Amino acid sequence: PQPGEDADRWFLDSEEGASEHTEERTVKMRLRFPAEGRFEIREITCRDLAGNVSGLPEPVSVTIDRTPPVLEIHIPEEELAHEGYYSHPVTVWLYLKEHNFKPDEEEGFPQIFLEAGKEEGGEEIRAERAEGTEGCWETASEKGADWYKLPVSVTEDGNYRLSVSYEDPAGWSLSAESRTEAEFTVDVTAPEFGSITAMGESWNAFFEHITFGRYSSDKEPVILTGGDSVSPVEPLRYLCADRELTERELEEIEEGQWKEGDSLVLEPDIRTVVYLKVTNYSGLSSYFNSSGLVIEDKGPVITLSPQGEAWAGSGIYRGNVELTAVLKEP
Questions:
Q1: If you write DSSP's letter for every residue of 102-126 in order, what string do you get?
Q2: Cα separation of 28 and 143, whole Å?
Q3: CB distance 155 to 92 below 8 Å
């Protein structure tokens, strides 16, 4: 074409304005696509000044994608003791909306990272896939066209941070409205740590059989501690009972009967067992108890009863006298 001819189509001419052209001349043509989609350029012909005509050897496919992909992270919605803390394995669903996504080509998959750790530290690991999926994306027809989904299953205790990044074949990153991160905790284990300290001794387990073998004549302070290796714990709860209780009996005790605190003072006169309840944020509880504790500040009462006939009731005896001693604890 000559300068100025078809200016809306030709936007580069290496010899623009020249009166004569050489064999080194290069021109470029602009094709405008009206919308997104896959287009096939089937025919382009070009005629030079000598009358030679050439065309495309074969059709060329072009895909136009002007829409960034969208990602959604769906964490199970259920009634929890604390938001984000689960007492059971969790399956998180990732939903991706991308027209040009190919679930059978792993090279173009989103990058998924799952950082898991406990209080003492964490490490980055690859997410475990839900059983039966083998890590494959599948069509999410329930969401509409161009949606795909992938389950990420978490079975072990830990504080998890899930992050996802993705760039589609057109070079678009995830849209601004996409959710790319989520944090949650899986804690299927009841609290491991609990301690009751009194009379210079500590108990850190649950004992099924109790003996009352610890004594004191003065009031005794009791210190309570509890913790969990994964989750925070609720305020500690305790109660005192004058007999041994089973864990099942403790589970059936209403919350209102438990007292809240990390210490108490045992006053005379009392015969008791201290029970401690430690509950983590996922709602699981462990129980601990002390040995049997006896605190009394009064000694036994001794009563002597002479056996025999006293002379005229004077308390004076003519012979041997048998005495009966009775000791009575208060």
A1: -TT-GGGPPEEEEEEEETTEEEEEP
A2: 42
A3: no
Cβ atoms of 291 and 202 closer than 8 Å: no
Q: How far is CA 166 from the centre of its chain?
A: 24
Task: Report CA 76 to chain centroid distance, whole Å.
Answer: 11
The first and second tokens of residue 35, run together, are 């919308």
User: Residue 199 CB: number of other CB atoms within 10 A?
Assistant: 16
Between CA 122 and CA 131, with CA 127 as vertex, the angle to 5 degrees is: 135
Give the pair of three-digit tokens for residue 288.
Answer: 């601990």
Contact 238, 261 (CB under 8 A): yes
Radius of gyration in angstroms for the set of CA atoms belonging to the chain, rounded to a whole number = 42
Do the beta carbons of residue 122 and residue 115 sit within 8 Å?
Answer: yes
Structure-block tokens of residue 91: 């399956």
Q: What is the mean pLDDT of each run of 10 residues along the chain (330 residues)?
A: 47 74 77 82 82 89 91 93 94 94 83 71 46 68 94 90 92 95 95 96 95 92 96 97 95 95 94 97 97 87 74 66 78
Residue in the structure block whose two tokens are 């401690």: 276
Rounded CA separation 8/11 (Å) = 7
CA dist 125 and 180 (Å) reads: 17
N-to-C CA span, the chain:
120
CA distance 188 to 81: 13
